[in-house]
Structures are given as C-alpha cells and as structure tokens.
Amino acid sequence: MKQMSHLDDSPSTPGKFKMDKSPYFHRTRWQSSVAKLAFWSLVFVGLIFIFFYRSPSSNPVSSDPSRRSLRTYSWGGPAWEKRVRSSARVRTRHGISVLVTGAAGFVGTHVSAALKRRGDGVLGLDNFNDYYDPSLKRARQALLERSGVFVVEGDINDAALLRKLFEVVPFTHVMHLAAQAGVRYAMENPSSYVHSNIAGFVNLLEVCKSANPQPAIVWASSSSVYGLNTKVPFSEKDRTDQPASLYAATKKAGEEIAHTYNHIYGLSLTGLRFFTVYGPWGRPDMAYFFFTRDILKGKTISIFEGANHGTVARDFTYIDDIVKGCLGALDTAEKSTGSGGKKRGAAQLRVFNLGNTSPVPVTDLVTILERLLKLKAKRNIMKLPRNGDVQFTHANISSAQRELGYKPTTDLQTGLKKFARWYLGYYNGGKKAAS
Ligand SMILES: *[C@@H]1O[C@H](CO)[C@@H](O)[C@H](O)[C@H]1NC(C)=O
After folding, report:
1. 7-11, 281-285, 405-409: which has the minimum mean pLDDT?
2. How far is the centre of ligand 1, averaged over its atoms, from the C-alpha of 256 (Å)?
C-alpha cells in the first residue's frame, strides 16, 4: 500500500504523508475522534490534490513553473512490478538491462528503442513534465510501448521509486538522459535546472551507489560546458570553467558530481557531451524544429548573428549518430567496482564529445529547410543576445572515435530531410502545427 501513491517526493516539499499509527491515536475516545477527523480531512484534501494535479484537462501547459515540482505519480503493486520486470528482461545472451531516465524525451526514446531492438532489457522512466508539449512525449511513449518498452511515470528525485526499481530489477546499466534542457528558459525558471540536473542527478547516484550490484552509468552532459571557450574544435581537455548559461553550469556541475561519486563509491561513469542533436521526434524548443513550424505558418523567424555580422554556427548531430554513440558508451562501460555503498577499487570515469565535426551556419540550416519545405522563410536577422547561447560549437570527436567506435555518418541535409518528412507526417502535413 505504501508504494501505491506518492504525494510529491520533490525536495521543495520533502514532508511525506505517513500513515504510521502513533500511540496518541488511542489515548481517549475524544482524541481518537479528533484524530480520525484529521485523518479523513487529510485523505480528502489529498484526493482533491491528486485529482487536480493528475487531471489532464487541468491546464496542461501551465505557465507556473512551481507546479511541475508538485506532481503526483502512482506506482507499485504486483501488476506494475510485472510490467517493470517484463520490460527490463534481457532477450539475448550477452544483453544488458538498462534503466533509461528521460525515456519519453527525444534522445531517450531513440536510445530505448535501439536497445530494445537489439534484445537488451529496457525500462524507461520519465516525469512527463510540461517544459514542452507533453502530448509529444505521450506519442513517443506510445511508440515505445508498441516496441515493448514500459515507461514508468515518475521523477528521478523520488528515491523510494528508484530504490524500488533496483529492487525489482538488478540493472546492469543506467542511461541517464532526464534533464531540464534549454539555455534561455533558465532565466525564467532557474530552479527547475537545479531540481533536475543537480538534485535529481545526485539522488540517482545515491541510489546507484547503494544498489547491489552497482550499475554502470552513462549520462548526458552537454557541449554547452565549453561555454566561452574559443579554441576550436572543442576537445575534452579544453577548459570548461566559463559556462555561459545556468543550463551549462548545471551540466558542468554534473561532471564534477560524477567525479565525486566515481572517486568515493567506485561508480563507473561516462558523460556524453551532446552537440545540438536533431531529427525525427525532436524537441520543439530547438531552432530547427520551430523554424520548420514557423516557415510552414508563414511566420517570421529570428536568426541570430554574432558581433560584426559574425556567423552563428552549430555542430548539428543527427539522432541516429548520437544513438550509436550512446550504445557505444554503454557497451564499453566497465563495471562499477563498489558494493553496498563502499568502494572496492578504482572505477572508470570518462567524458566524450558526441558531435558531427562539421559546424553549419544557422543561415544555411534555414536555406536547407526552405528547400525541403518548398517555402521561402521570412528572415529577421538579430544580434545574438548574451543570455546563454554561444556563437559556435565544433566537436573534436577523436576520443569517442577511438574508444567508442563513434563515427557520425549523417550530414545536415540528409538528416533534415528525414526530420521534415517526420514533421509533416506527425503534424498532419504541417496543418496542425506544433504548439
Ligand atoms: C582532437 O583531440 C585529440 C585528443 O583527443 C588531439 O590529439 C587532437 O590534436 C585534436 N585535434 C584537433 C584538430 O584539435
């Protein structure tokens, strides 16, 4: 019963409703009835709470950022455990069992599907927050369900849930992709970055270090950690102590936190610095995605340029290449060395760039989209604001090439063609545009 429903396990309201009987309950009849009244009032309020926050019709795209940390998820019970076990069951001889956080996200969906396809056990976890249109996350979830991947609805900040998952399945690996993404949104809702990228990550690592056996962890860092670094291409050894956004700072913090858990507990940790990942089922908050939407709608798009009309360019990396990099990282991850929360020896600690090694100016991206959509974009050239975005990114991937066998093969033209085809299909020929 205890694990059936959890009212908010987020740090913002750590107090949990406990049903444990206290000795005061039976002192006198009067006290007992007061206690009963209080108890049922709490249950009543709790039910209202659950109804209000679970109801899909209750303003799903709320602008109140605090609402997101007040979500209720229900999990547990024999049927739920059976689904968890079945989804995580390894179906090939040397397969691995992977807990994928952020599984209903863009990269999470593709990685989960790829792992399942090759016979690995996969269990998804996602909190389905409304940072962007949750219906897209639900559609990805439906896709995963059809391929046999169960996506548990819950938060990485919920330690009880994570412990339960490890109790039900001895995961060999964790693919940690759950995060608060976006560079400019950090000015609107800074706490959500701390909540997901720092508190959530630490909570996950705490559970992983106590798990027996400890899993190996591969997780998503970001190319944004290079911040104001001007040396190109970006190599893993370059300085990453000048983040240009809170998002970048929380990802950089994640890398330092990873070092700590590796050092103290012997957790095997691999961080992947993704460079502008794009493709079908992508994130609507990314430029290539909303440029497509706005070009189809005939809306003006804002294209940033650097100082002195400098080119803003990105090392766009196609999703299938990223997936191969993720799988390569999982397959080459060594076992964690600790057990029972104690380190037994040195463990693997790695960080890799996963990029495409060919930055493309954002103006070229728009030209490719115009050709694919057979429409002219209304361009509005704007100065790049100093609120998080850097002028260019360019990955040196020689390390990932050597250690993970990573070799991107999709150029922007080819990748965008696949994206555009998906977009037009998904949004009904672009008529039902993404919100
Ligand atoms: C890329 O990084 C490797 C180290 O991983 C380094 O040896 C090489 O010189 C770098 N290449 C460039 C073009 O900076």
Report:
1. 7-11
2. 23
233 Cβ below 6 A of ligand 1? yes
> How many other C-beta atoms can be found within 10 angstroms of the C-beta atom of residue 143?
16
pLDDT, tens only, 245-263:
999 999 999 999 999 999 9
Q: Quick check: CB of 235 below 6 Å from ligand 1?
A: yes
Q: Residue 30 contacts by C-beta under 8 Å, 6 or more apart in sequence? A: none
Give 138: exposed, middle or buried? Use CB within 10 Å, 0-12, 13-18, 19+.
middle
For residue 117, what are the CA distances in angstroms to 83, 114, 265, 410?
18, 5, 32, 21
Domains of the chain, residue spans: 5-15+24-69
User: pLDDT for 109-138, tens place per residue?
Assistant: 999 999 999 999 999 999 999 999 999 999
Q: How many Cβ atoms sit within 10 Å of the Cβ of residue 238? A: 15
396 pocket-lining for ligand 1 (C-beta < 6 Å): yes
Confidence grade of residue 57 (pLDDT, cut at 50, 70, 90): very low
Task: Enumerate the active-site residues.
Answer: 247
pLDDT at 67 over 60: no
CA 282 – CA 278 distance, rounded (Å): 6
Which pTM does this prediction carry? 0.84
State the closest ligand 1 atom to the C-alpha of 233, by its place in the atom list counted from 1: 14
Is pLDDT at 168 greater than 80 in this prediction? yes
Please give the Cα distance from 271 to 254 (Å, whole number).
9
Is the minimum distance from the CB of 398 to ligand 1 under 6 angstroms?
Answer: yes
Which residue lies with its CA nearest to atom 3 of ligand 1? 398
Q: 268 with 335: CB under 8 angstroms?
A: yes
Q: Which residues lie closer than 8 Å to 285 by C-beta, 6 or more apart?
A: 131, 132, 181, 182, 185
Query: Please, are residues 336 and 262 in contact by the beta-carbon 8 Å criterion?
Result: no
Ligand 1 contact, 355 CB (< 6 A): no
Q: Report the atom number in ligand 1 closest to the C-alpha of 232.
A: 14
